[in-house]
Write a structure and sequence with these properties.
Radius of gyration: 47 Å
Helix content: 40-55%
Distance between the termini: 142 Å
Strand content: 5-15%
């Protein structure tokens, strides 16, 4: 251990060494001024602060520590309440609370000394940190005590602690009912809990309610210290009974009444008896019990209130309430509107259904929209199509339970083959809904989808089959947006906006499959037409080009006549046939006009008949 005080040296000091300190701190020597040193207070969780009071170098020398402690700063936990992870035993990996009384350095790292209830233990301080400093409110309420760290990590614990502290601040007396409902360990106000004084590190036991009141500054004006138990709780019942038995003036209430009826002279001249204080305390205890058990209505008033059984109504309310899973909550926390912070999911959905002016009011659709469940839980863009009063009047069977947000009220299938205008109407309604229900980043994704669909129809509106594929494509993109939020966060999920493009791979595959189906259908229609023509002509078509030529040649054949028989015996010149009009002229021998008799050949010199 270093024994030389120099600039940059590290020490661990507290009020016993430096009266100007209110708690124990790490200090680092900034500079030396003769036999005194100017130091800086180290705050591992915040900003370091200069300490104005010079400290003797001899005091610092006795409290020097190794620089290795600056890795995890174990001394910063001393004198503070902490939440820590149980390292072993049947409670391994669960969270517990205690106060840190000291620490030691070992070869494997620092070890904290903890006081937990009536027991003490040592735990190794490791990184990532398994110990977290908490407020006295968190410590006395044991928030999330016994919860497994895999189910609630350190960051999530911080959010939970802040929420409980906010609930406690709303109550002027006692523990807020909402805060008590969130606790994993029942809060018993009279239970004793150890607290540690930050200046002397003395551990004392006080009631939990006393710690809660002092932490909430309910007793600040009375000058009550959290580290000193209230007098009324330290006085045992046996002492009160003994003080009451020493009084010879009758029952306790009569003695209390007699003390009040004393004259002012007697009260001023004679000091109170030793048992008088006990009588007053006993009477105050009785009055407190009577106030706690007092009925809200006087029995002498003769008023009888009818009893109303609300158990059935409570069960019905619970059966229709939406209770999101942790995954659904995490998704909505990432995409939800800022006004939803701290509000119950049921309240959010009912407000959207009844207070806001939109056409999305079906509970199953709102429940699925809570965590953007497109494509994964059956939610489709077409579920946001406008439902007018005329449509509801025309189809009364299509109505749903408008107050049941539970999962038993399943979502109904959307329109299967919508037109392009119906898709655009639903998509624009979804964008309008998302502006008030989601944050700006999520609403920008819906805006990108609307812009792409608008530009797609500039060359002509797609048919219903193409629109059906576009609905599938948009649902898959919105579902992909939700999946990336779960895996990587909202910042990475926003890149989905760039995928609303005509060259998107999935969109190209869907449209190509549609064209293949159209081509196959056209080929089938041509084959069917050819079969019908063949059936009418009695000729069976053959495959290939030669078959089509043979079929075409056979279609041009006719029955032979007498003229055909004469033509077969006439003289020919190669492939040319003799023209019949020359045979009908008188005096023509056919020799001189041989060339002219074959009109298809090239003309040569000669005279026509």
């Amino acid at each position: 251990m270093p024994r030389t005080v120099a600039a940059g040296a590290l020490a661990f000091l507290g009020p016993p060494q430096v009266p100007g300190l209110t708690a124990f701190h790490y200090v680092r020597v900034s500079r030396l001024d003769g036999a005194q040193a100017i130091v800086t207070l180290i705050d591992p969780d915040g900003v370091d602060d200069d300490f104005d009071e010079p400290i003797d170098t001899e005091v610092i020398r006795r409290r020097l520590v190794e620089d290795a402690e600056s890795t995890l700063w174990p001394g910063s936990y001393v004198g503070s309440p902490v939440a820590f992870v149980q390292p072993d035993g049947v409670t391994m990996d669960t969270r517990a609370y205690g106060v840190v009384t000291g620490y030691t350095m070992h070869a494997d790292g620092p070890h904290l000394h903890l006081r937990q209830g009536d027991t003490a233990r040592k735990i190794a301080l490791i990184h990532p940190l398994n110990v977290r400093k908490v407020d006295w409110i968190d410590y006395v309420l044991q928030v999330e005590s016994g919860t497994n760290t895999a189910a609630l990590n350190t960051d999530e614990l911080g959010d939970k602690l802040a929420a409980i502290r906010a609930l406690c601040a709303t109550s002027r007396t006692g523990l807020a009912a909402k805060a008590a409902h969130e606790l994993t360990v029942a809060f018993v106000p009279t239970d004793q809990v150890p607290v540690i004084k930050p200046d002397t590190l003395q551990v004392v036991s006080v009631p939990r309610q006393h710690v809660l009141d002092c932490a909430l500054k309910r007793k600040a004006k009375k000058g009550v210290s959290m580290y000193v138990a209230p007098q009324s709780t330290t006085r045992s019942k046996a002492m009160k009974r003994k003080a009451a038995s020493n009084n010879n003036e009758g029952p306790a209430r009569a003695r209390f009444k007699h003390s009040l009826e004393l004259s002012s002279n007697e009260s001023d001249d004679e000091p109170p008896d030793q048992f008088a204080a006990g009588d007053v305390d006993l009477e105050e205890d009785k009055q407190a019990v009577q106030r706690q058990n007092r009925s809200f209505t006087s029995a002498s008033a003769g008023i009888t209130l009818p009893s109303v059984d609300t158990s059935g109504e409570l069960r019905s309310h619970r059966a229709t309430t939406f209770r999101p899973t942790p995954i659904e909550r995490s998704v909505h926390d990432a995409i939800g509107h800022p006004s939803h912070t701290g509000k119950e999911p049921q309240f959010i959905l009912e407000y959207e259904q009844q207070a806001r002016e939109n056409t999305v009011d079906a509970p199953p659709v709102l429940r699925a929209a809570y965590d953007f469940s497109f494509d994964v839980r059956g939610l489709s863009v077409m579920h946001f199509a406008r439902v007018t009063r005329a449509m509801r009047l025309a189809d009364p069977d299509a109505s749903v339970n408008m107050v049941d947000f539970s999962r038993k009220n399943i979502i109904r299938p959307a329109a299967h083959t919508p037109s392009y205008m119906e898709l655009m109407d639903a998509l624009m309604n979804l964008r309008h809904f998302g502006i008030g229900f989601y944050n700006d980043d999520t609403a920008s994704v819906l805006q990108a989808a609307v812009q792409f669909m608008t530009s797609l129809a500039e060359g002509g509106e797609p048919d219903r089959e193409t629109t059906r594929r576009l609905v599938l494509w948009i649902n898959s993109k919105l579902g992909r947006f939700r999946g990336i939020i779960l895996s990587s966060g909202l910042a990475d999920a926003l890149h989905v906006k760039d995928e609303f493009h005509i060259s998107d791979r999935l969109l190209c595959e869907l449209l190509q499959d549609q064209q293949k189906a159209v081509l196959e259908q056209q080929k089938a229609e041509i084959a069917a037409l050819s079969a019908r023509v063949s059936a009418l002509s009695g000729v069976k078509p053959q495959g290939g080009a030669s078959g089509r030529a043979s079929w075409s040649q056979k279609q041009k054949t006719y029955p032979k006549s007498k003229f055909d028989s004469v033509m077969e015996v006439l003289p020919k010149k190669g492939s040319l046939e003799l023209c019949m009009k020359y045979l009908s002229k008188n005096g023509c021998t056919g020799v001189e006009v041989l060339t002219s008799a074959y009109p298809r050949s090239e003309r040569i010199s000669g005279r026509k008949c």
